[in-house]
Amino acid sequence: MAATTATTTAVAVLRDWRGWPTVLATLWRRSLRFRTLTVTLLLTSTAIFITCVTMALVIQNDLFESRKNEALEDARRAVDQAQATLDVAEVGDSPVALQELWDSIRDDLARNTAADQLAAIRIDGDAGAVPLTGFTAGLSANNISSGLRNRVVQSDDVQSWQSVALEVDARQGVPGIIVGQQLRVPEAGPFEVYFAYDLADADQTLGFVQRTLWIAGIGLVAIVAAISYIVLRTVSTPIVEAAETSARLASGDLAVRLEVHGEDELATLARSFNAMADSIESQIKELGELSLVQQRFVSDVSHELRTPLTTIRLAADMLNDQREDFDPTTSRTTELLHTQVQRFETLLSDLLEISRYDAGSVQLELEATSLAHLAEDIIEQMRPLAEGRGTELRLVAPGGYTPVDMDPRRVRRVLRNLIGNAIEHGEGRPVVVTVDSNQHAVAAGVRDSGLGMDPADAERVFDRFWRADPSRQRTIGGTGLGLSIALGDATLHGGSLAVWSELGVGTNFVLTLPRHDGVIDGPSPILVEPQEPLLEFGDATQPIQLAELPPDLFDEESIR
Question: What global pTM score does this model have?
Fold first, then answer.
C-alpha cells in the first residue's frame, strides 16, 4: 500500500512540470541506479558529441580541401592550354585575326574547364596595340571581390582563390569557389580570368556525412544507455534488495533474509548479511528473554515485598506514634525508620508501575477533567512543601479550563512530580506553573530558575535512576523513577513531555495532552523554550483564584 501511494504521488507530481526538479533531485539523492545511469549517460554523450563534432570538422576540412585542389588544378590546366595556344598563334597586325583568336580562346576555356561559370576582365593599366574586351559566361563581376582582383593583378603566374556564395540556376547562396589567374594575349596585354565552381554537391555530401554521424552518435548513446541499464540492474537489484531487507530488519522483522544466488561477491554479501541477521536475531531474542526475566523479577520481588513491608510499616507507625515516650536517640531512630519505610513503599509502588509499563499492561481511566483546576489543586497540595523550602509557587492559567478526556490520577502524578523536582532544584526561587490550551491540545508547563542542566544532561533526564549531579542527595525523597513514569503517563495519553534547561538559568518541563483522538495534530500551546526571563512575569504570576475568573472564560469560544 505504501508503494502504491508513493507511485501515485510521483505520477501526480510528474503531471505538473514544475514538480520535475523535485522528482529528479529526490531520485538523485535516493537512487543509486538513477545516479549512476545519469552520470554514465552524461559522460558518454559528452564523449560521443566531442567525437562527432571532431569527425565532422575533419571531414568538412578534407572535403573542402579536395574540391579546392580539384578546382585549382582544373583552372590551371585550362589557363595553361589557352596560354599555349596564344603563344604559338600568328595573327600579325590583323585586328580581325586577333579577335577571332580571342573568340576561340573563350570557347576553349569554356570547353577545357569543369567550371560552372567563368569571366575574363582586361587589366586596364596594360592596353595593347589591338583593343580586346573581356567576356563573361554566367559569372557576374559583382561576385568577384576587389581583394581577389587585386591579388590576381599583382601576381602574374600565381593562382588566387576565394570562397563565395554563387547564384546558379536561379538558386541564391549556393556555396562555391572562384579561382583567378592572369592570361597574356599577344598585342592586347594581360587579362584576368576567373573560374567559378559550384560546391553544392560537396555541401550535400558533407550534410549527409554529418547527419549520419549524429544519427550514429544518438544510436550509440541509446545503446550505451540500454547496456548501462541492464548492467546496473543486474548489479543494483541485489543491492536494492539488501537495502529493503535491512530496512525491514531494522523495523523489527527479524525473520527476513536475503536469497543467495551463485558464488560471486553479491552472493558473499548475501551470506554475510544473513549471518549477521541470524546473530542479531539470536541476541535480540536473548535480550528479550533477559528483559522478560528482569521484568518478572522486579514485579515478583515488588509483590513479594509488599506483605513484609506492610508488617514493617505497621510496626514503624506504632513506634513512630510512641516516639515521644522514648529517649531522644531512640525517638530519632524511630522517626528515621518511619521515613525510610515510607520511601521504601513509594519505591516499591514505582517499581510495580514501571513493570506494568514494561509489560504493556497499563490502562487509562479517562475522565473529562479541567487541567487548570487540576493544576491548582496540585499547587495547593504542594504549597506547604514549597513554603518549607522558601519557594513561592505561582500559577499562570490563560487557558485549559474546558474539560478534556484524561486519566486525572496519572496527570496529577506527573504534575506532582514536576513541581516537586522544581521545588527541590529551584534554589528557593519562584516556581511558575503555566496552563494553556489551543484547538489541538492542552498543556501545563513547570518552570524554575534554579541551577539548570546542560543539553547532554537534559537528554538523559528521563532515564531511570539517573541524576545530573550524583553527588547531590535527594532531599524530598524521590525514587529516581518519577520522570520516567511521568514520560510513560504522557505517552500513554498520546501526548508528550518535553524539557528545556540551561545551566545557571533554570529548567522548564512542558506536559502536552491531545484534545481529541489521542493524537496531537498541531503545536503545543506552551513553548518548551521560554521566550522571556522568569522575573518578567511580575505580578501576573500570582496565584489565580478560579472563583474570581469571568464566567465566559469556560466557554468553548474563549479557548485559545
Answer: 0.47
